Automatic annotation (TrEMBL):
One of its GO terms (molecular function) is transaminase activity. Keywords: Aminotransferase, Pyridoxal phosphate, Transferase. Its cofactor is pyridoxal 5'-phosphate. Belongs to the class-I pyridoxal-phosphate-dependent aminotransferase family. Alanine aminotransferase subfamily. Signal peptide: none annotated. The lineage of its organism: Eukaryota, Fungi, Dikarya, Basidiomycota, Agaricomycotina. Residues 91-454 form the Aminotransferase class I/classII large domain. GO terms for biological process: L-alanine catabolic process. Homodimer. It comes from Paxillus rubicundulus Ve08.2h10. Pfam families: Aminotran_1_2. This is Unplaced genomic scaffold scaffold_348, whole genome shotgun sequence.
Length: 480
């Protein structure tokens, strides 16, 4: 056998691309290290790197504060002696929660049930039932190391014919889906969201796409991915659209994969509420197979590094669930602190609990800040010639469209880059702001976008840099 080289690796692995932590993020990290080593005599035209490329709320520079309740429960589970060493530090409801979990779990240094701690899965089922008004069952719920682990598991199970099995994914999409499909030799089947209608999803257009595939004699896709609220768009589906999607999945026997990790990131909950696909499927009385994903990484939790999430199976046969259990058993169990985070997610303090007032203040403040930043950024970006940004009712991102001249496109081609990647690299070099080019998410031919988070503090200065850069870039590469 020859020595290990890139060319000798699994070709499916070589095909994996993940734009969120790609070239831009690597270069941003190089700049960050350079700044740390040369603070007294900076060579760069900026004093800090702003990582707007990923929804990572608690990272340095974004600094979304963690929720006190979550950290206190985690602390008592991590180091039980704190209960006696600092008896007056922890509220009574925090101590009671930790005692209950300790009685069930014991040390978090031990493996748990491979599907997740039974008591926590019971609490997840109760959360879902309270949210939707319909029963949920702990045996149909899997706790996972973040929602991404659940998505990876489901896609690996769905690809029955490598190189042939297709999965419908939205464009633009979160690169997790194309990366995971590449890893398991699945075929991405894109359907396009309508930017002119607030990045809306059209069940009729997906239906037309499926009919075209059928008429061409090709194998129909196995599943349909819906990201709601959307990533990177922030779009939120209304109930009629969800009803139409469920009907579509029933008609074409598609497994519905509902990525709902941003369900609590709602900027206008009174006018733009979230409805779960579990609720829609149950009320449709259709036998649509559904897997719904949620996570502690988003919302106001922002506990990305704990790697906690879950998925729920609806209308999935017991033999398939047994196969899922077999596969998660290979990994032994999800991280215990992530599972504890899930318990805090689905069982926050209630009114009357000692921790409730602080929890309410912290969560309300974060929701308000995110909504204000989003609104301010949309307004500022839309005031710039050559930039158009759809307002986002949910999630943590904006996805502005940028107009690039033929000169800019030619310069990008000469540099061997996609035009929006060329633009994003220039933005990073000039301002220290790291975004993700739209080519990493997918977009229509001849259109250019970038995704940025709404998490950055000092939003006035931050957006001002984006605006000034676009104006200078347009001067450098003017329209013919």
């Amino acid at each position: 056998m020859s020595k290990l080289t890139v060319d000798s690796l699994n070709p499916a692995v070589r095909n994996v691309q993940y734009a969120v932590r790609g070239e831009l993020a690597i270069k941003a990290e190089e700049y960050r290290v350079k700044l740390q080593k040369n603070l007294a005599n900076r060579e760069l035209p900026f004093s800090q790197v702003i990582s707007s490329n990923i929804g990572n709320p608690q990272q340095k520079g974004l600094n979304q504060p963690p929720l006190t309740f979550v950290r206190q429960v985690a602390a008592l589970m991590e180091y039980r002696q704190l209960k006696n060493l600092a008896p007056h530090v922890f509220p009574r409801d925090v101590i009671a929660r930790a005692d209950e979990l300790w009685e069930e779990i014991g040390s978090i240094g031990a493996y748990s049930h491979s599907q997740g701690v039974p008591l926590i899965r019971k609490h997840v089922a109760e959360f879902i039932q309270e949210r939707d008004g319909h029963p949920a069952y702990p045996e149909h719920i899997f706790l996972t190391g973040g929602a991404s682990a659940g998505v990876s598991l489901l896609i690996s199970l769905l690809i029955s014919e490598p190189g042939k099995t297709g999965i419908l994914i939205p464009i633009p999409q979160y690169p997790l889906y194309t990366a995971t499909l590449a890893q398991y030799s699945g075929v991405p089947v894109p359907y396009y969201l309508d930017e002119t209608k607030g990045w809306s999803t059209s069940a009729n257009e997906i239906r037309s796409l499926l009919e075209t595939i059928r008429q061409e004699g090709k194998t129909l896709p196995r599943a349909l991915v819906i990201i709601n609220p959307g990533n990177p768009t922030g779009a939120l589906l209304d109930r009629p659209t969800q009803d139409a999607i469920v009907e579509l999945c029933d008609d074409y026997n598609l497994v519905l994969l509902a990525d709902e990790v941003y369900q609590s990131n709602l900027h206008h909950p009174d006018t733009h509420p979230f409805t779960s696909f579990k609720k829609v499927v149950v009320e449709s009385r259709r036998d649509v197979q559904l897997v719904s994903f949620h996570s502690i990484s988003k919302g106001v939790f922002g506990e990305c590094g704990r790697r906690g999430g879950y998925f729920e199976c609806t209308n999935i046969g017991e033999e398939v669930i047994a196969m899922m259990y077999k596969m998660v058993s290979v990994g032994l169990c999800p991280p215990l602190q992530g599972q504890i985070g899930v318990d805090c997610l689905v069982r926050p303090p209630k009114q009357g609990d000692e921790s409730y007032a602080l929890w309410k203040k912290e969560t309300d403040t974060t929701h308000k800040v995110l909504a204000q930043r989003t609104s301010q950024m949309v307004e500022a970006l839309n005031a710039v010639e050559g930039v158009n940004c759809v307002d986002s009712p949910g999630a943590l991102y904006l996805y502005p469209k940028i107009e690039l001249s033929s000169k800019a496109i030619a310069a990008a081609k000469a540099a061997g880059k996609e035009p929006d990647a060329f633009y994003a690299l220039a933005l990073l070099d000039a301002t220290g702001i790291c975004v993700v080019p739209g080519s990493g998410f997918g977009q229509k031919e001849g259109e250019f976008h970038y995704r940025l988070t709404c998490l950055c503090p000092g939003v006035g200065e931050y957006v001002g840099k984006l605006v000034n850069f676009h104006q200078e870039f347009s001067k450098k590469y003017p329209k013919a």
